[in-house]
Amino acid sequence: MHILIDNFLKIYFSSDFSRRVSRFLKYNETIEYEIKRYHNIMDHSSQSLMATITGGLCLAYLFGMISQKIKISPLVGYLTAGFIIGPFTPGFVVNTVLASELAEIGIILLMFGVGLHFSLNDLLSVKSIAVPGAIIQVLITTLLGFILSRCIGCEIFSGVLFGLCFSTSSTLVLLRTLEEKKIVCSKIGKISIGWLIVEDLIMLLILLILPVLYNLVNDVVQENHLFSIFIRTLLTMVKVSCFIVLTLMFGKRLIPYLLSKTEETDSRELFTLAILVFAIGIAYASVTLFNVSFAIGAFFAGITLNKSKLSKKAAKDILPLKDAFAVLFFVSVGMLLDPTVLLTYPIQILIILTIIVFGKLFFISFLIKLFGYSYKDSFGVAVNLTQIGEFSFILSKIGTNLHLFSHEVQNLILSGAVISIIVNSFLVKINNVTGFFRK
C-alpha cells in the first residue's frame, strides 16, 4: 500500500514532499501499532492482576474455612491455597511476580500493625522471665539450626540466618490462639506476649543489620579493603540512625497531627487512606532514602502512632486491609513450596520439625520452670510458642534474594513452618482437652 502511495506521490509531487508524506504515513502506522501494543499489555497486566488477586483470595477463603472447620490455623489454609495456584502444581497458575509485589504490601501492613500494637508495658511486666528466657531460647534454636545447616552444606553466614529462621514464633498464630482461649490477660498470655515481643525485637535488629553484615562478609571475601568496608558500614548505620531519629522525632508529632486533621473531616475513606499513605509512604521512603527495609520502615511508621489517641481507630480502620494483604502474603509464601523437597529431604524436614516443635517445647518450658513458674504455666507458654511464622518467611525470602539460600533450603524452611503450624494447632487442642500439667 505504501509503495503505491509513494509512486503516486512521485508522479504528482516533488520527491522531497513525497518522502515527507510517506514518512508521515509510516510514523502514523507506528503510532497505531504502539497504541495497540500498549492496550494489549494493559489488558494482559490487568487480567493478570485480577487473576492473581481473585485466585489467591478465593482459594485462601475456601481453604481457610476448611482449616477453621477442622480446628487448625487458617494460615495452613492460606499456605495451601498458595501451593495449589503456585508453579509447582498443575492447572491454574497465577503471576508469581505480581503475587510477590502484593506480598510486599502485606509485609508492610503486617509490620505496621506490629508497631501499632507494640507495648513496652506488656514487656516490662514480665521482663524478668521474657527477656533472658527469649534471648537464651533464640540462641539455642539458632545454634541447633546452624548445626543442621552445616550438615546440608550451607556456608557459615547462611547457616546463622538458617538457624534464626527457626527461633521466632508466629505473631498471628500466637495472638489467635490466646484470643480463642481468652487468656490474653492471664499470666500465660502475658508471658507469651512478652516472650514474643523480645523475639520480634531480636528479629527487627537482625533485619536492620543483615544487609550490613552481608556486605561486610562479601567485601572481606572479595576485596579485603577493611577501611572501605568500615566507611560503608558506618554510613549505613548513620542512615539507619537518621531514619529512626527523624521518624520518631517528627513522625510522632506530624503524623498524629495530620491524622487528627483528617479525622475532623468526618470522612472515613480519607482517614483510612491517610493511614495507608503513612504506612506505605514511610516504608517506601525508608528503602529509597535510607536503605532500610520495608519491614523496618513500616514498623517505625506504626510506632509513631503507638501512643496516639487515634491509634485504636487507626488499627480498627486498617485491619481489613492488613488482613487481606496478610492473606496474600501467606498465599505468596505457599506458592514457593515445592513438594519434591518433602520427598527428597524427608530426614532434614523431620529434624527441622524436631527443632521447631519439640526442641522449643522442651527448652522454653525448662527455662520458664527454672524461673520458678509452675509446670502448667511453663508448658502452657511453651505450647503457644512452638511454631514459626511471619519473620521466618521474611528472613527466608531475604536469604533467597541475597543468594544465601538455594531454592531447596528455602523450601526446607517453608515446609518446616507449614508443618509446625499444623502440629502446633493440634498441640494446643490436645493441651486444652487433656489439661496437661494442671498443677
TrEMBL record:
<dbReference type="InterPro" id="IPR038770">
    <property type="entry name" value="Na+/solute_symporter_sf"/>
</dbReference>
<feature type="transmembrane region" description="Helical">
    <location>
        <begin position="196"/>
        <end position="217"/>
    </location>
</feature>
<keyword id="KW-0813">Transport</keyword>
<dbReference type="Pfam" id="PF00999">
    <property type="entry name" value="Na_H_Exchanger"/>
</dbReference>
<feature type="transmembrane region" description="Helical">
    <location>
        <begin position="412"/>
        <end position="430"/>
    </location>
</feature>
<feature type="transmembrane region" description="Helical">
    <location>
        <begin position="350"/>
        <end position="371"/>
    </location>
</feature>
<feature type="transmembrane region" description="Helical">
    <location>
        <begin position="156"/>
        <end position="175"/>
    </location>
</feature>
<dbReference type="GO" id="GO:1902600">
    <property type="term" value="P:proton transmembrane transport"/>
</dbReference>
<feature type="transmembrane region" description="Helical">
    <location>
        <begin position="271"/>
        <end position="304"/>
    </location>
</feature>
<keyword id="KW-0812">Transmembrane</keyword>
<feature type="transmembrane region" description="Helical">
    <location>
        <begin position="75"/>
        <end position="93"/>
    </location>
</feature>
<feature type="domain" description="Cation/H+ exchanger transmembrane">
    <location>
        <begin position="60"/>
        <end position="429"/>
    </location>
</feature>
<keyword id="KW-0997">Cell inner membrane</keyword>
<keyword id="KW-0472">Membrane</keyword>
<keyword id="KW-1003">Cell membrane</keyword>
<keyword id="KW-0406">Ion transport</keyword>
<feature type="transmembrane region" description="Helical">
    <location>
        <begin position="229"/>
        <end position="250"/>
    </location>
</feature>
<dbReference type="GO" id="GO:0016020">
    <property type="term" value="C:membrane"/>
</dbReference>
<feature type="transmembrane region" description="Helical">
    <location>
        <begin position="46"/>
        <end position="63"/>
    </location>
</feature>
<dbReference type="GO" id="GO:0015297">
    <property type="term" value="F:antiporter activity"/>
</dbReference>
<feature type="transmembrane region" description="Helical">
    <location>
        <begin position="105"/>
        <end position="124"/>
    </location>
</feature>
<comment type="similarity">
    <text>Belongs to the monovalent cation:proton antiporter 2 (CPA2) transporter (TC 2.A.37) family.</text>
</comment>
<dbReference type="InterPro" id="IPR006153">
    <property type="entry name" value="Cation/H_exchanger_TM"/>
</dbReference>
<feature type="transmembrane region" description="Helical">
    <location>
        <begin position="324"/>
        <end position="343"/>
    </location>
</feature>
<protein>
    <recommendedName>
        <fullName>Cation/H+ exchanger transmembrane domain-containing protein</fullName>
    </recommendedName>
</protein>
<keyword id="KW-0050">Antiport</keyword>
<feature type="transmembrane region" description="Helical">
    <location>
        <begin position="131"/>
        <end position="150"/>
    </location>
</feature>
<keyword id="KW-1133">Transmembrane helix</keyword>
